[in-house]
Design goal:
single chain, mainly alpha, 2 strands
């Protein structure tokens, strides 16, 4: 009895797609799909302006593993690191004066350019985005604390 009902469902589902012949045709149809077909459809339906992006950070022993400035320096070619490090340090110092909206704009700008970032600059941009997020979180927490303190 179980084998009969199983066979029924195996044939009924393809019939819902139009015909039991779907079982024979679908593998060939899947094989006929090319990389160009996938790219064409992806370009038609996916766009940078209509996407949601999330960041995943691994945790070590329950703590978030943050990118360090030393890791950034080590990831850059030596000649680039010598030129970039003073500028990076100046950017980090300037972050403390930015408003929450300016921090959000900076995060969004880095995110929008992520696909164009050269591989040797990826860790640097991830680091700057990380630091902008940390600063924004601290600023938002300070604002929340201030508003809670005003209610008492």
């Amino acid at each position: 009895m179980q084998a009969t009902s199983s066979l029924f469902f195996q044939l009924a589902i393809p019939q819902a797609y139009g015909s039991y012949e779907y079982l024979n045709e679908m593998p060939r149809a899947i094989q006929a799909v090319t990389a160009e077909d996938i790219q064409r459809v992806a370009n038609e339906y996916f766009s940078n302006s209509a996407r949601a992006v999330s960041m995943y950070t691994r945790k070590d022993n329950g703590e978030v593993k943050l990118i360090t400035l030393e890791e950034v320096k080590a990831s850059l070619p030596p000649e680039m690191a010598a030129m970039a490090m003073p500028q990076i340090e100046a950017e980090l110092a300037a972050m403390s004066a930015l408003s929450a909206d300016e921090l959000r704009e900076g995060i969004a700008e880095i995110e929008s350019q992520k696909e164009m970032i050269p591989p040797q600059m990826k860790k640097l941009m991830d680091y700057l985005q990380q630091e902008l997020r940390i600063r924004l979180e601290a600023l938002e927490n300070d604002e929340a604390d201030a508003s809670e303190g005003g209610d008492e």
